[in-house]
Amino acid sequence: MDTLNYKCPNCSAGLTFDSKEQKMKCEFCGSTYSLEELDKLAEQQDTVEEDKTEKWKGFEPEQWQSDEKSNMAVWNCPSCGAEILAEKTTGSTVCPYCDNPMIMPEQFKDSYRPDYIIPFMKSKKEAKQALKAHYEGKPLLPKVFKDENHLEEIRAVYVPFWLFDLDTAGRFSYEATKTRVWEDDDYNYTATRFYHVVRAGKINFRKIPVDGSKAIDDTMMEAIEPYEYQDLTEFNMSYLSGYMADKYDQEPDELTGRVYERMEQSVKDCFEASVKGYATVTPKQEKVTVTNKGEVKYGLFPVWFLNTKWNGKTYSFAMNGQTGRLIGDLPVGKDLAVKYWFKCHIPLTIAMTAIVTALRFMGVI
Length: 365
Description:
This protein is of the alpha+beta class. Helix content is 23%, strand content 36%. The strands form four sheets. Strands 5, 6, 10, 11, 12, 13, 14, 15, 16 and 17 form a ten-stranded mixed beta sheet that branches. A three-stranded antiparallel beta sheet has the order 1-2-3. Strands 4-9 form a two-stranded antiparallel sheet. Strand 7 and strand 8 form a beta hairpin. Residues 104-108 and 336-342 have low confidence and may be disordered. This is DNA-directed RNA polymerase subunit P. Keywords: DNA-directed RNA polymerase, Transcription.
């Protein structure tokens, strides 16, 4: 990533800030420039061309081979609408998202063949152990969540992801400060210096993952990232054996907004992280430009799912089937919450009352 240094537009010598004139001044030729003037000049010099094409390049979906297609089936959950892909030998199953039992229809629906797959690295046993560990140290968790029979409801699903390539350019300005504090016999002093900091550069992204299923919570999928791409391999039908696979229902062009959102936040974080050595850093101007929409590929990534109901509410958990990262919300038992409050607060209240009484008896208060 490149950084921006101020140089005199007239003679190319270095510029320094003149505190008296509140402008940037060239010590060589004597020219002065305001920060706004320099920013405009720099923007003109660093102008980048925005890629405004509507379609993603490189999206040439590979069709299923006849022998692979003959062994697969796709069906819809009548409850939540999720489309599930698995081997045709599967006669019935349970929706991994809503627990609704489903019978597989005979008719097969066409879909694109994945380019890549990350195989499952974590077993069902490891998924169960991770969930049990997630329960530990949570005294308000109802006992029903700790029962062994609920752990058996964990299921392995390959989730569809579109993988996007993007080239970007960014230009940012920040207001930064440095503070020095000292004192003498009479006064305390605080001196604050203000700085105008500018960063500009290019960042290229490869294989930004965005899940392509409407039935899956996007926040949950992003929370179990990252996936480690050293295990990304060319798709082979054999990896699906023993697992379910969700079929995408969103095309790449429908997900451009989410891709840009993820990219822009990463660019902002990256540039701001380069501004170091200041007490405070406040963004003032931010500009991110997509200079090239690259290829988009289709991949299947491994996820362990658990859905369980308690008191009429469904609680969902997901674990990265490669790294083991697990996320999910846990319910709070109201009776346990009351008991926990009394257990923690009553002894403290009694102790504080005793201390106050003792202090009053001694005449301190």
